[in-house]
Amino acid sequence: xxxxxxxxxxxxxxxxxxxxxxxxxxxxxxxxxxxxxxxxxxxxxxxxxxxxxxxxxxxxxxxxxxxxxxxxxxxxxxxxxxxxxxxxxxxxxxxxxxxxxxxxxxxxxxxxxxxxxxxxxxxxxxxxxxxxxxxxxxxxxxxxxxxxxxxxxxxxxxxxxxxxxxxxxxxxxxxxxxxxxxxxxxxxxxxxxxxxxxxxxxxxxxxxxxxxxxxxxxxxxxxxxxxxxxxxxxxxxxxxxxxxxxxxxxxx
Length: 252
Ligand SMILES: C[S@@+](CC[C@H](N)C(=O)[O-])C[C@H]1O[C@@H](n2cnc3c(N)ncnc32)[C@H](O)[C@@H]1O
Known about the structure:
Rossmann fold; seven-stranded mixed sheet; two-stranded antiparallel sheet; globular; binds S-adenosylmethionine
């Protein structure tokens, strides 16, 4: 390696290579992405996503960024909730930007269906196509661990948020007990690549997904990174014993 390094699953690669490698993974999994999520998590990812949407509590007139939004699974939830609130209390339409650097994921999402509040853009979490201080909330769900320079993506979240804007991140994390860690390790390393091989004919991509989860910082270390990027009131909520965690903060 000649320049700075980045993790790609258990491998260390040149930082300049990581984005292309990750793009390859999501190009390959795009068409089966939603089905695979349901199979791998036995539907539990929906409950985690619902909990994040409830915490976000999208309001009419708000601008919300769904960064690394993929097929728009989160954005659709936000649009529905903002519309319900609008029907009750009135107000402007919410604006929900799905930004993802993988056009295949966005195409799969658009085919699945959009909402009038949603706009889709191909863009990088490290250089969002949005002005400074323009968003009321920023959400990144199962996206941050794929980004090459995580501190840069967090600073970018801070840049696009208005002062006081809400930051929410849903990501796989570290199970809180040794027993759960062992069971989860066995499941993820034995079962997930096997499901990937059988359902999507792609063991390698799912092996990467599992390895990238292991290399992601734990709850406390990631919370510290969020604070360093310019957020206050940083905290987290564990889901399913820490298999996933929702980190939250407010832009300073
Ligand atoms: C596991 S998917 C999550 C999709 C969606 N947020 C969800 O929860 O279902 C990860 C997404 O992150 C996107 N991604 C990875 N690196 C990115 C980056 N640097 N900028 C924007 N999107 C990125 C991938 O293209 C992929 O769509």
